[in-house]
Amino acid sequence: MELENLIWRINLTNVQTCNEAGKTLTQLMAEKDVLKMRISALRDAYERASSQNERYSRSEIKMLTTVDVKELRKRIDDYSQQLRKLDMEIQSLGFLTDLI
Q: By three-state DSSP, how is residue 62 classified?
């Protein structure tokens, strides 16, 4: 029962705690989760697009990358930077907020 109460209080605190832009901690954590998913998907695509396929003879089919690998890397870096900033904001709000 104590654990259930603690979880309820944490969730209530997260819903009622807002940053300067008016977003709740819950919204910020959802944004963080989405950024993590985007980064993961882009990293998978980047790894596949940047891998070298070896051919053993000229008669084998040559695989060409149709994805702009540099642009993909830039998007990963941009999302990663957003994630770090968002994570710092969430941690800061968490440290400054008392549990309800």
A: coil
Interatomic CA distance for residues 24 and 6, integer angstroms: 19
Six token digits for residue 86: 């968002």
Q: Are 31 and 86 in contact (CB under 8 A)?
A: yes
How many domains is the chain partitioned into structurally?
A: 1
Integer Cα distance of 80 and 68 in angstroms: 18
State pLDDT tens for residues 2-59.
999 999 999 999 999 999 999 999 999 999 999 999 999 999 999 988 887 776 677 7
25 and 90 Cβ atoms separated by less than 8 Å = yes
| pTM recorded for the entire structure | 0.82
* Structural domain harbouring 76: 2-96
